[in-house]
Amino acid sequence: MFFDPFLVLFSFCIGILGAMFGGVQTFICTGFAGIIVYTLKAAGIEPTLLGDSVLNTLLLPAIIFNGSAIATAVAARKYPDQIQGWDITRSLIFLHDTTVMLVGGLAGSLGYLLFSLLSFLNCPADPGATSMIIFGVVVRLTLSNGRKWNPDATQYYREQGWKYWVFQTVNCLAIATVFAFILHEAGPEFYGVGFSISALLLIFSYAGDGQKIPTTHQITNIVGVALGLTGGNMVIAVVAALLANHAYLVFAKYFNEDCSTHIDPPAVGIALGTLVLNIIF
After folding, report:
1. What is the pLDDT of residues 18-45, one digit of tens each?
2. pTM attached to this predicted model
3. Structural domain spans, the chain
4. H or E segment at 184?
5. CA separation, residue 274 to residues 126, 212, 247, 278 (Å)
6. 258: which of 122, 183, 207, 250 lies 20 to 30 Å off by Cα?
7. Which of 194, 242, 196 is nearest to 220 (CA)?
8. Eight-class DSSP state of 45
9. What residues have CB less than 8 Å from 273, skipping those under 6 apart?
């Protein structure tokens, strides 16, 4: 059997937590837990329980983030004047709606089952990211009460011109190079810590005047994966991260910004990046 029946129920409860606290908030917690796990490893302590039960189950985005995103889409259909379907930064507890919470729970269970199935089938694209994309697309096609894609994206790119891509490329190369070097020096056991750092950094979006900071886990995740698959080749890691980041940017502009529900753009970058890397290496 590719799944654990107990974890189906456990994931149902986790999905409700996702709806209660919000997608971005739970993802920040994922980053925090990941850093604790890697810190313990660096100290020579193997955090088996914390890694398996907390990081890889409780805070697995395929479960808890899916719970938040799908519950938010349903909430937006029921309460369009109170919440938008794309806003995965909000707790849904203020609605006092049991149905919305239960939808989050169901989404958590389904997220676990799909993640487990994709892992069992050795999906070449990251199973967690792929499951988030699949559910995001299904929700967009079935629960959308507004725009399914952003037709203004092409005009935006025309107005920005080549300078936009130079700007994004320079930023991505800087991030990818820094993390490629750090993770390469840290060693294979720590290739995943970049993803955790990127997730935790999103907490600064809630600090000060609320100015958003860039999303970088589609870069750091692929850097770690590429290092692992290539035996530590930093050049390939940086190039792969650049591909993943630019896929993230294009998808975000066309299919997430100003759309009616959330389809996770970083997940698209991670799924594409891991797919290409696994095919080549």
Report:
1. 999 999 999 999 999 999 989 988 888 8
2. 0.95
3. 5-280
4. helix 162-186
5. 6, 27, 12, 6
6. 207
7. 194
8. -
9. 218, 221, 222, 225, 226, 240, 241, 243, 244, 247
